[in-house]
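Q: What changes when 3-acetylpyridine adenine dinucleotide is included in the input?
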Amino acid sequence: MSALPSISGKDLETYDVVVVGAGFAGMYMLHRLRGQGLTVRVYEQGGDVGGTWYWNRYPGARCDVESMQYSYSFSDELQREWNWSERYAPQPEILRYANHVADRFGLRPDIALNTRVDGAVFDENTNTWSVTTSDGRIVTAKFVVLATGCLSNARLPDIKGLSDFKGKVYHTGHWPHEPVDFTGLRVGVIGTGSSAIQSVPVIAEQAHHLTVFQRTANFSIPAHNTELTAEERDAFRKNYPEIRRFAREEARNGIYAELPDRGALDDGDNARRARFEQRWAKGGLTFMLAYNNLILDKTANDTAAGFVREKIAEIVQDPETAKRLQPDDHPIGSKRICVDTEYYATFNRPNVTLVDIKSDPIDEILSNAVRTRAKNHEIDALVLATGFDAMTGSVARIDIRGRRSQTLNQKWAEGPRTFLGLMSEGFPNLFIITGPGSPSVLSNMIVSIEQHVDWITDAIAWMRDRGLEAMEASREAEDQWVAHVNEVAHATLYPQANSWYMGANIPGKPRIFMPYIGGVGVYRRICNEVAAKEYEGFVMTTKERAKKMVAS
Ligand code: N01
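A: The predicted holo structure follows.
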């Protein structure tokens, strides 16, 4: 396939497609589009490829999906030649993998690093986008693909006095590239989400004293991480065709696992406990697959939550600390379940203190301490594990203007609106990878990324074959999809938690359940059907129609 006819512009760089972000989504998007003969430029604000794995370098960072599954499937050679060393690879290894992919597929020449995309404006006369970058360039492209990641906009908490603190302040999502040594220091960690739960045990081993400031206790399941043997890797590879097929087509979350055949209340107490024990011993995210109704039925959910609370009480020696660590304000799994190595046991260490900031709130940060209502907690370094402006945050930082100069931020002021999570009405030829309204963060991200990239590549090829100028979600299809996403979410227990899925961690952010919870298999079938019906629900602009629109 030859390149799309690029618009002429003597002074402008023009591309068929601009891709924003060189994480796992942006890299695969580049690879696929180049394979179609298109000209592509990728802009990446980081100093190298890898996206979330470039930024999240905090101690203990590792994936919570097994690496043999959290890896690209598009190249059989790649999945056979790369040897994951552990069941859940640590961040440096995942970043090495991202770099290996960039080199192996020769992606680097088309990626501009250290370059942020600041704005993108759609020109209705030419049906092209003008993209402004942080190095002062304006480039034009027929299509823009936002591969900006769902958890890339690190969020600093609004705590009085934060800027007065004299020691070093770190955010887990923006960790320095040089080694950080906490040896001999008194360290404070604010937050107890996945990032804190992974980093606390490692920081505790180094620090003289560690104080963990917890607002909401979280459910965490042991990872039981181990080294992978050559035999284990081979067994996976042998079964890869079925493992990958199942993850794409049948799993709700894009992970190959044994699916439950019954609900939690179908078993008696002893059988249920035995099953939870079995899942606990296996470890990881699939604990929630012990039964098929844990996230649908509160009584069923209570049995799993109660089991984990008992485990916490068994592990943590001090009953008061154990009680504070037991979550009691949200159903298990309604916030992203955490996967840990020795998190709860870390609170048995003499150098670790847990402060419950719900009952003893942080009043302010002083030059050398976190001052809660009850006392000053003296610290030398502060770690903010306070999360992200998820799913929409990194998109909102780009000034995106579609038809009639409407900005995407204006359009999404009451919450994100998309058709299939892929496009938003009024913003033609602008695709989002794993955007709000798609399974995205509720799934194995690489499975969802590959599905979106393949779908977008096919859509662009289809348009090109028919000489189409622009593609855009219709208002009607978008309205119906938004209603469907909400309806499905509210049939589950997810909206009962104040989670970042709901935008609840950002003051003022609309409370809307952002990802699509219908499952990756179901969602893939819907996307495929839409494509098979000639992109039903999308409005296509022909050259003739474009001319008429400009003339009128
Ligand atoms: O962020 P979070 P995260 N004062 O938002 C607390 C993925 N991830 O970086 O719950 C005090 O979950 C906040 O408290 P509360 C994964 O999808 C994956 O840990 O709002 N506390 C919470 O405890 C994950 O879900 C891996 O009451 C404040 C914490 O900070 C997502 O990233 C590893 C506060 C934030 O938790 C985000 O995880 C790590 C304040 N002002 C992360 N503001 C993998 O393994 C916030 N908090 C792949």
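Observations recorded in class: The chain has a mean pLDDT of 95.
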